[in-house]
Amino acid sequence: MNLIIGKPKSNIGLFRHQFSRTLLFPTRALALRTAHDVILWCSLAWAIGGVLGPMQAAALLQRESNPGRTPSEVQPAAPRPGNDEALLFSQVDHCIADRKLDEAEVLLQDYLHRSPDSAGALYRLGRVFFDRHNWSASTAYLLRSLKINDQNDRAHLILGLDYFQLNRIEEAGRELLTAVKQNPQSDENQYMAGRYFFTKSKRTEALAFFYEAVRLNAENFKAYHSLGLCFANLGNYALAENYYKQAIEIAEKQNIKFQQGYLDLADLLTGIESTKVSEGEIFARRAAELSPDSSEAHFLVGKALFREGEHIKALPELLRSINLDPKDSRPHFLLAKIYQKLNRQADAEAEYEKFRQLMKFQTERGQTASSRSLSPVH
After folding, report:
1. How distant, in Å, are the alpha carbons of 47, 132, 266 from that of 26?
2. Does some domain include residue 132?
3. What are phi and psi of 155, to 5 degrees?
């Protein structure tokens, strides 16, 4: 699902392309998890896409065997002599961490032939298929696992994200809230529940979960970023700017290239009501440096230059944005306005017509400014 930006207060500009442009943004707690914990919200896609963002691999947390402990406290289960399942899971977890998903699947399927009621094996198969973005298969294995042992907040979390990808929104919300209920000390559970309410346009409810996420983990820059999105949407641009900048600062301290943070901050600062357009241009150019092929980044650079009256300089940025994403209507609108100012009426009319056609197409397909959907786990 895509989005178009404009004035944050009207939901425009608060979302980016879901998986291919979003998101996602690992935190210190996530860094303790496997690389497959750190994919997503796919291009997909907030996302995930995304964002998605850098990924750090580590040993898989044995969450289903430690339902009462927080993510940062849980350590990989050490295999005990004679404990074949623990030994297998340790091997599988390393395979998943190394992105050897085929090898992990073979080991798990072979084990399930001998122990078909292993909740841990079924859960891990669900994770394998989740990492492959095979949402239906992941859902099937996770449901089988939870039928045997429903006290696994990680399984509920990933199942909720599967449901979201399958457009089963209400079921997604149920599972994500179950994950929070079973392990309220997980900042990731709190964060993903907040994202669910955010995509439902329930900003007040979302804020409560995001605040809890940052309380539990002050280095969860995804949660700070989401607080910024909420406040921008609510029209509190000063708070939005503050949280965006905090998210960027925290990510930089972790040596993470958080392009989405720069994009959203640039979008905010180049908006119609902003008096900080030149600062917005700086953040837009930083986003373009991080991802030279980002149509969004070049659009925002062009938008900033347009707002600053640098119409000639804005042209190449807007044209490059169109070249990178021909289906984006926004640069056509700005090009039309620039051509009008340059007395190129024929070019202006052509761009306005292209803008109208793309907007009609987006409306018919149900694409709106607030259509960024939930990002998978990163």
Report:
1. 12, 18, 22
2. yes
3. -65, -40
Structural domains of the chain, count = 2
Query: Please, are residues 31 and 377 in contact by the beta-carbon 8 Å criterion?
Result: no
Q: How confident is the model at residue 367 (pLDDT cuts 50, 70, 90)?
A: low
Select from 311, 298, 375, 309 the least CA-distant residue to 344: 311
What is d(CA 230, CA 27) in angstroms, rounded to the nearest whole number? 20
164 three-class SS: helix
pLDDT by residue (tens digit) across 64-92?
333 344 433 434 444 443 378 999 999 99
> Between 215 and 81, where is the model more confident?
215
Name residues whose C-beta falls within 8 Å of residue 162's C-beta, 6 or more positions apart in sequence. 130, 135, 136, 138, 139, 142, 172
- Residue 36 pLDDT > 50, yes or no? no
Q: Evaluate whether 235 touches 9 at the Cβ level (below 8 Å).
A: yes
pTM of this structure: 0.75
3-state secondary structure 49-75: CCCCCCCCCCCCCCHHHCCCCCCCCCC
Q: pLDDT at position 363, please?
A: 82
Q: Is 49 a domain residue?
A: no
Grouping H, G, I as helix, E, B as strand and the rest as coil, residue 252 is helix
Residue 228 contacts residue 247 (beta carbons within 8 Å): yes
Q: Range with the lowest mean pLDDT among 128-142, 271-285, 351-365?
A: 351-365
CATH number of 317's domain: 1.25.40.10
